[in-house]
Amino acid sequence: MNPRSGSSPAGILSVLFFILAAGSFYWATISGMYPFYAVALILGLAGLVTPVSMQMANQWEKAVVLRLGRLHGIKGPGVFFIMPFVDAVTVWIDQRIQTTEFNAEQALTRDTVPTNIDAILFWQVHDPQRAALEITDYRQAIGRVAQTSLREMIGSSPLTTLLSDRKNADKLLKEEIGRKTADWGVSVISVEIRDVAIPAALQDAMSRQAQAEREKEARVILGAAELEVAQKFLDAANIYAQNPAALQLRAMNIIYETTKERGATILIPTMMVDSMNAGGIMSLAAMANKDITASSQPAPWGPRDEQK
Questions:
Q1: Does pLDDT of 249 surpass 90?
Q2: What does the alpha-carbon distance between residue 267 and residue 10 come to, in Å, rounded to a whole number?
Q3: Higher pLDDT, residue 229 or 208
Q4: Is the peptide bond before 77 cis (omega within 30 degrees of 0)?
Q5: Across residues 20-45, what is the average pLDDT?
Q6: Burial label, 50 (beta-carbon count in 10 A; 0-12, 13-18, 19+)
Q7: What angle do CA 124, 129, 131 make, to 5 degrees?
């Protein structure tokens, strides 16, 4: 009987046979009917043989049955019978998806960087006959093949590729391990790299490098902005040089914006005033001061008017 079964139908059936054999023997003794002794003997032998011949495989299991040392068949799932002392169930194959953890410690990348990588392999047996007959221990072999393939992949890849493109590394590992385990009846479902560890000194150096690259990018962006601003000023200067009236209008606008603040005092050189239209500028300033004075005077009505 399969000891991994949740119930023991073979044991129950064996006990039933023994009870019937005991009843037949008792009936033959009290009745003197000798044929019942033969029945009791047959039932007793059935009770002894049933636990050996009756096997049960779970839904996810396959049993490899050998008859006199040669493959007889793959049985299961469910209840099946074998011939005692002739057939033997040598291997029980679990066809559920299995996981195997593996790692590569202190493996050197292509650019000679020591790296520790942890990964997990998802696999499944699709051919129980080959898994039982082609290799001694397929579970142990899968772990060894996965670790060897991981080391080969690390040795052929630079560190930057392992850190930035894990999906491609997972795909390469899956293809390589699947190619090696296909002859054993094992299919590789997926491979996932969980962690890539590098020395602490190298981590610090990479951090400084990343910081320097970010600072360089910031400086380049700032320089591009300065270049764009300088180009805009150059374009504005060309426009003012071609049209002096535009420059005067701009100067008047600056003075107007400045005189909007109360109590502001503006000192303008004489040459600058002469180069500009002084009359227009002064009239504009006077208008601005007039607006400020008007806004500072109280309203014509007071609190008494509001009370009325």
A1: no
A2: 113
A3: 229
A4: yes
A5: 76
A6: buried
A7: 45
Q: What is the DSSP string of 147-189?
A: HHHHHHHHHTS-HHHHHH-HHHHHHHHHHHHHHHHGGGTEEEE
CA gap 142, 100 in Å, rounded: 8
Please state which of the ranges 25-39, 70-84, 122-136, 270-284 shows the lowest mean pLDDT.
270-284
Cβ neighbours around 4 below 10 Å, total = 11
Determine the length of the chain.
308
Q: What is the per-residue pLDDT for 290?
A: 58
Lowest-confidence region among 132-141, 169-178, 230-239: 230-239
> Token pair of 122, please?
């998802």
Nearest to 157 by CA among 142, 176, 140: 176
Alpha carbon 147 to its chain's center = 20
Q: Residue 127 corresponds to which amino acid?
A: D
Token code pair at residue 284: 């504009």
What does pTM read for this prediction?
0.60
